[in-house]
Amino acid sequence: MAGGDKTSVASETLAEHRRWTRSALVLAVISAALALGFFSLSRAVSRGATGDLDERVLLAMRVPENLADPIGPRWVEEMGRDMTALGGVAVLGLITATVVAFFWLSSMHRAAVYIGIASVGSILLATALKHSFDRPRPDLVPHGSMVYTSSFPSGHSTMAAAVYLTLGMVASRFVPRRRLKVLLIGVAMLVTAAVGVSRVYLGVHWPSDVLAGWAVGASWALVCWCVTIWLQDHGVIEQDLSHPIEVRRATI
After folding, report:
1. Closest Cα partner for 200 from 244, 141, 240, 248?
2. Domain boundaries, given as residue ranges, for the chain
3. Which of 116, 158, 224, 237 could form a disulfide with 126 if both were Cys (CB 3.0 to 4.6 A apart)?
4. Is the pLDDT at 239 greater than 80, yes or no?
5. What is the secondary structure of 172-216 as a DSSP string?
6. How far apart are CA 233 and CA 242, in angstroms?
């Protein structure tokens, strides 16, 4: 009987390993496709192929009689500033530190370190890309937010996609319930979308800047998710909040 139990456990472990491997491969393919999309879009921007569409979308968010006035009531414009702040380095750093502290205090030290590295890496990636292109900011409308750097890709959109999606996807690997996983990833996607749209709404980025930021940020997040699967599958980091790695080893 004991032998049968061991065989059953081994079979379940092998099946789980194969399932995680397939998931990691799918994520890797999607990430590569997003990265390719970013580079294709960057080439189109360099050739000026996105200019007409960028202008139409940007102007569609302004009152035709007064381009200095974004569409909608004043509270919508103020909300746009609130949303765009969620993609700033200060807010992202605070959120990352909070999530890392949460996992550390939950005795998931390896997961905390990994999440910290993944999040900081995303910010460094966004900063590096930002200095690789020299696209002027939109000059069709007044800017509704202070800007200091070039336009492509949108740094706020890149960092929001990379950090929020990374935190949402990676953190979802450590919670056991499916509805909690959906909540974490759903909120991450919603905030990422809101930050990007707010950058165009405030007139500080072209739509193609935001699309490029989303693409490269999501690609990074998927890579981190893929690595998380591999690390968990090999027992390098914890499985979930209810099973710290030390406890699992003690029961193997």
Report:
1. 141
2. 2-251
3. 158
4. no
5. HTT---HHHHHHHHHHHHHHHHHHHHHHHHTTSS-HHHHHHHHHH
6. 16
